[in-house]
């Protein structure tokens, strides 16, 4: 696989209004995201509601997604789990089905059940030993696990397939800069997340891409491409254009934003989220649609 840069958005998992996985909707989401001009698609991540899917549903979503994409763009499969054995099994299955990359968080099960640093390292090592595709380390506050820069650098240097990093911790730009400086060529893909709310600072720090939701990748991707081409003013102007919607998604909507806009645009039939998550309030949804209309998003019109 060629080095990935640009935008690698997370695909939502669509459900029918009764909560069942929408298999046809999953395939339509893949096609819509490709039409959004993404550089890769990440599935089964936190913004895919992976923590609300059964093992059987995970396998179903993975199969439909990879079959529908059919090699048109790389697909990153998230395999996070506390159990090393489960993660290894998920990783092998993803590679066998055609995944181009894996993403995984460090093992955690609440703040009181976090392995020692050696256990975390061995967790990633076991997956790397089992596959021959790159691994992206997701360093996110959700886990509650501290991954200092020196630990990440050691992973990049000593674990063969660990070469991509999604940094979405507080002060991500400083951590990205330190990681890139200390890790050198071992840091193949430094990425940020958080719906690109800190993207300009993170690009200044040296990141080469972002993993957002599937809401507006066609609008956010030019921020990265312009910046990497040296057109920093153009990148800033584009970021300013996207920022109101980025902020609304990040602070008010979360993973529900992409599903709601895709439903409005006919990509999927329902924006259902599984309990204990709750649907957007009418007030929040109205602002989301209004901001999306101002940007004339692809997802808002794709199925109409």
Automatic annotation (TrEMBL):
Q: Write the record's keywords in alphabetical order, separated by commas.
A: Lyase
Binding of pyruvate: at which residues? 211
Q: Gene3D superfamilies recorded for this chain? A: Aldolase class I
Could you tell me which SUPFAM superfamilies the record lists for this protein?
Aldolase
- Pfam families for this protein: DHDPS
A GO MF label? 4-hydroxy-tetrahydrodipicolinate synthase activity
Q: Where is the signal peptide?
A: none
* Cellular component terms per the entry's GO annotation: cytosol
Specify whether Transmembrane helix is a keyword of the entry. Answer: no
The answer to whether keyword Cell cycle applies is no
Which CDD domains does the protein's record reference? DHDPS-like (cd00408)
E.C. numbers: 4.2.1.43
Q: Which PANTHER family match?
A: 4-HYDROXY-2-OXOGLUTARATE ALDOLASE, MITOCHONDRIAL, DIHYDRODIPICOLINATE SYNTHASE
Family, per entry: Belongs to the DapA family.
Q: What is this protein called?
A: L-2-keto-3-deoxyarabonate dehydratase
To which species is this protein native? Answer: Tropicibacter naphthalenivorans
- Please name the gene that encodes this protein: araD
């Amino acid at each position: 696989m060629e080095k990935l840069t640009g935008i690698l958005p997370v695909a939502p998992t669509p459900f029918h209004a009764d909560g069942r996985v929408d298999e046809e909707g999953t395939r339509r989401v893949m096609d819509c995201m490709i039409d959004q001009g993404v550089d890769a698609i990440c599935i089964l991540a936190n913004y895919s509601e992976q923590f609300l899917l059964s093992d059987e549903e995970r396998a179903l979503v993975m199969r439909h997604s990879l079959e529908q994409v059919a090699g048109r763009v790389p697909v990153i499969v998230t395999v996070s789990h506390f159990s090393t054995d489960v993660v290894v099994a998920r990783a092998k299955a993803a590679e066998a089905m055609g995944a181009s990359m894996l993403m995984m968080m460090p093992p955690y099960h609440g703040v009181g059940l976090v392995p020692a640093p050696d256990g975390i390292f061995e967790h990633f090592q076991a997956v790397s030993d089992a596959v021959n595709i790159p691994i992206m380390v997701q360093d996110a506050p959700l886990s509650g696990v501290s991954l200092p820069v020196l630990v990440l650098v050691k992973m990049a240097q000593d674990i063969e397939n660990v070469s991509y990093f999604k940094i979405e911790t507080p002060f991500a730009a400083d951590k990205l800069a330190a990681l890139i400086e200390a890790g050198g060529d071992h840091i193949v893909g430094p990425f940020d997340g958080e719906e690109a709310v800190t993207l300009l600072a993170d690009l200044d720090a040296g990141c080469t891409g972002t993993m957002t939701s599937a809401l507006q990748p066609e609008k956010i991707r030019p921020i990265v491409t312009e910046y990497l081409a040296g057109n920093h003013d153009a990148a800033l102007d584009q970021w300013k254009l996207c920022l109101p919607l980025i902020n609304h998604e990040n602070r008010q909507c979360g993973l529900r934003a992409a599903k709601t806009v895709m439903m409005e645009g006919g990509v999927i039939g329902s924006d259902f989220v599984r309990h204990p998550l709750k649907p957007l309030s009418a007030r929040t949804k109205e602002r989301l649609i209004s901001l999306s209309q101002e940007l004339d998003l692809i997802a808002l019109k794709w199925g109409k």
